[in-house]
TrEMBL record:
It comes from Streptomyces tropicalis. Residues 297-317 are annotated as: Disordered. This is TIM barrel protein. InterPro entries: IolE/XylAMocC-like, TAT_signal, Xyl_isomerase-like_sf, Xyl_isomerase-like_TIM-brl. It comes from the Bacteria. Pfam families: AP_endonuc_2 (PF01261). Residues 79-291 form the Xylose isomerase-like TIM barrel domain. PANTHER family: HYDROXYPYRUVATE ISOMERASE, INOSOSE DEHYDRATASE.
Length: 330
């Protein structure tokens, strides 16, 4: 259905694996949680984007959101459409398209040329963690060809939901991050909800905290998927996503700005939807993270190809979500 592009990175497969490895819920409370009074923006904040640390003039898109169009139509058509919509940055989820478009597979240099021709910047790329283990320097080469400053993984740091498992993973990320830094790149990890669970061997310790505390802030960065962070908060209460960013602003180089509608009848507590159609507390979040750092806002919607409003499909969702996100940051 999605061809080679889907084979590069099967996000739903990852989520199934994460669900199968769900760990026990503990009772601890994240010590740095933002006080309730501090979570409310000041007067007029709802109407003005001044002072935000997410720039409104560099809104990006995770290409997984339009994966069907990438494969079927190719990068040229997709980049032309995204540029027309107003997007300025793209995050990759694979570097392939339908080979029949060119009679062969597109090259990285050709993709770079198409980015430049359409005024787009590659801001990052999601790479399976296995490639960092076996092919790190090649992945860093690819990132430099595409001109991206960041390269990351959507995988959980470890499949072992213990303190020692996450400590060992932190050592790996420190090593990979040092190699990326030596090439002028930033290595990042993208969260789903499972990272916010508690360790199976120490149920008072949150796995995300273990990773954050044991990775070198000079070499290992984070991409907060805001949707999954709020799902993590729903599943494993006791922390506020904005507090992590406020306390470590320069480690969060990227955000996935993904929206959801609250639904107590589903396990995640939210149904994913296009940006602006949900009720996640984004207005509060973008002000509560504070004014420091430079956080690139990237729209993503895993379900965009199945979107039904008029016009239907992932391009329709991309256009409406861009408009809503730009309005939020204005």
């Amino acid at each position: 259905m999605m061809g080679q592009f889907a084979h590069d990175f099967d996000r739903r497969g990852f989520l199934r694996a994460a669900a199968a490895g769900t760990v026990a819920i503990g009772a601890a409370t994240f010590a740095g949680a933002l006080p309730a009074a501090a979570q409310t923006p000041g007067p007029g904040a709802e109407k003005h984007g001044a002072g935000l640390s997410i720039p409104k003039d560099a809104i990006g898109i995770q290409l997984y959101s339009v994966r069907d169009k990438v494969y079927q139509l190719g990068f040229r058509v997709v980049f032309e459409e995204l540029s027309r919509m107003g997007y300025k940055e793209v995050e990759f989820a694979g570097y392939t398209q339908d080979p029949s478009i060119l009679g062969r597979q597109i090259t990285l240099q050709e993709i770079r040329t198409l980015l430049d021709d359409n005024g787009l910047r590659a801001i990052g790329s999601h790479i399976g963690i296995g490639s960092f283990r076996s092919n790190l320097q090649k992945e860093l080469d690819n990132a430099q060809i595409l001109g991206m400053p960041n390269i990351g993984t959507p995988n959980a740091p470890s499949d072992t939901a213990t303190v020692s498992g996450y400590q060992a993973a932190a050592e790996d990320f420190n090593r990979w991050g040092a190699a990326a830094s030596a090439r002028g790149l930033k290595l990042y990890q993208h969260n789903h909800w499972a990272e916010f669970a508690f360790a199976t061997d120490q149920p008072a310790v949150r796995l995300y905290d273990v990773f954050l505390e044991n990775t070198d802030p000079a070499n290992v960065f984070l991409e907060m998927d805001v949707f999954w962070a709020f799902v993590g908060q729903y599943r494993y209460p006791g922390f506020d996503p904005a507090a992590y960013v406020r306390e470590h602003p320069y480690r969060y180089t990227l955000f996935h700005m993904k929206d959801g509608t609250s639904d107590p009848d589903v396990g995640d507590g939210y149904d994913m939807t296009e940006f602006g159609a949900g009720n996640m507390p984004y207005q509060r979040f973008i002000h509560a993270i504070g004014p420091f750092g430079n956080h690139h806002g990237i729209w993503e919607q895993d379900t965009a190809p199945d979107t039904q409003p008029d016009p239907p499909g992932s391009f329709g969702a991309a256009q409406r979500s861009y408009t809503a996100l730009a309005d939020l940051l204005s």
